[in-house]
Amino acid sequence: GEPVRAVVHAAGLPQATPVLETTAAEFADVIGGKVAGARNLDELLGDDVDAFVLFSSNAGVWGSGGQGAYGAGNAYLDALAEQRRARGAAATSVAWGFWGGGGMAGDVELEDQLRRRGLREMAPEAAVEALCQALDANEVFLAVADVDWARFAPGFTLARRRPLIEDIPEVRALLEAADEPSAER
Q1: Distance CA 143, CA 61 (A)
Q2: Is the distance from CB of 9 to CB of 53 less than 8 angstroms?
Q3: What is the span of the domain harbouring residue 153?
Q4: pTM for the full model?
Q5: Digit-coded pLDDT (tens) for 94-104
Q6: Which residue of 3, 33, 127, 137 is most buried, as measured by CB atoms within 10 A?
């Protein structure tokens, strides 16, 4: 038959356990499908594929309460994409936000938590379009999410500066408005 020319790795288990309560067994279960699966695909397929797509999560980019192991597994995928590119192989890792229509979130409590933080449900069609654009642009890593910055940014930047999002125009405006003395408002 024909050789495999492209692969999409989208394995993963959700997690909702605080880091201090995560057992070694749970940690291994949560990262196992992501890490072992991606590593095995990398070893088996090597560098001779046209597309090597890894479905990561924003939990590995900006964190997510109760998802320490899940975030670590996703950070591994992002690093693997960078490693593959460094050796000249195809790789794109997409750190997805909250997909609509079920999927990993699928847990009503987790979905409510994400919405309260300002992370909105993405239409699957829009997510697929973003993936196509990322592949066309030959991106190594990108985060794709539908974010209500007015809700998300204050909580995300409360404890310290967050250069990751500070240059987003909507976030910059929010941060500048928050820095204005209250007499000027």
Answers
A1: 8
A2: yes
A3: 149-185
A4: 0.86
A5: 999 988 876 65
A6: 127
